[in-house]
Specification:
single chain, about 240 residues, alpha/beta, Rossmann fold, about 45% helix, disordered N terminus, binds NADP nicotinamide-adenine-dinucleotide phosphate
Length: about 240
């Protein structure tokens, strides 16, 4: 890893145009990092860049679809050697679907974005010594709801992928952050008008008594990225959801 006292830390965040990825971008810019956010929509990326408060660091964006190997190869040939790579990308369309009406194409989209995409990042990123890869799984792997079988499986498999990559790519560190329910734009798509009610219902059951915030996941990601002795680890940031 570059010595942040003398050299600017460089970080790629795939999924950085929204939610947790965007919160991480803001936190890194506040720390002085050079941040590259990537996702599919140029418009969304441009809007996201504008929302990041000015800081000692910088943010810029590159359009890239994590499910396309061509895009991922191009992304890393543009950015060159990098300290940390993070993905929060998820294709929300196929995330929740009852198995009885299971749509294969949508299921593959979810697996491509959440599982195969991170493998492509591991294949093409040129991580500098001491750097890291951080993936995002989720509570569905541990407390699946009806209709969440595909994302539950993707999250569980992603954690196994990270364990294997930590062995294969060491000394590059590979970790996973597993969020509980976090108030991000994804919920507008998943729950629509029922979002607040569903959040309140879960909050009442959680030990912490509330839903999480994207900035709290950003802090969890920073912890695994920057601790040089953490690899092959899943950090749960779920307000105690696995216990209820
Ligand atoms: N929010 C929660 O309660 C929760 C709970 C558990 C786990 N998680 C997990 O946490 C992660 C982040 O979720 P979030 O709530 O922050 O989601 P979000 O706000 O919807 O952000 C998702 C990001 O992924 C990008 N994206 C989607 N498909 C992509 C693709 N094929 N290639 C590149 N970028 C892509 C989106 O931008 P474009 O659409 O422009 O590509 C967007 O920037 C996800 O992996 C999700 O499964 C979330």
């Amino acid at each position: 890893m570059t010595d942040s006292a003398t050299t600017t830390e460089r970080v790629v965040i795939v999924g950085g145009s929204s939610g947790m990825g965007l919160a991480l971008a803001a936190a890194l810019v506040a720390e002085g990092a050079e941040v590259i956010i990537a996702s599919r929509s140029a418009e969304r990326l441009a809007d996201a860049e504008r929302t990041v408060p000015e800081g000692p660091g910088t943010v810029r964006s590159i359009v890239a679809d994590i499910t396309s190997e061509t895009d991922i190869e191009r992304l890393f040939s543009e950015v060159g050697p990098i300290d940390h790579v993070v993905t929060t990308a998820v294709d929300v369309e196929g995330v929740y679907q009852p198995i009885a009406s299971f749509d294969l194409e949508l299921a593959r989209k979810t697996l491509d974005a959440k599982l195969i995409g991170p493998a492509l990042l591991a294949k093409h990123a040129r991580i500098v010594p001491g750097g890291s890869l951080t993936f995002t799984s989720g509570i569905a792997a541990y407390r699946p709801a009806p209709g969440s079988s595909i994302v539950a499986a993707a999250n569980g498999a992603l954690e196994s992928l990270a364990y294997a990559l930590a062995i294969e790519l060491g000394p590059t560190r590979v970790n996973v952050v597993s969020p509980g329910w976090i108030d991000t734009p994804i919920w507008d798509t998943i729950a629509g008008d029922a979002k607040t009610e569903r959040h309140q219902q879960l909050a009442a059951r959680l030990p912490v008594g509330r839903i999480g915030q994207p900035a709290e996941i950003a802090k969890a990601m920073l912890a695994v990225m920057h601790n040089q002795f953490i690899t092959g680890t899943v950090l749960h940031a779920d307000g105690g959801h696995r216990l209820v």
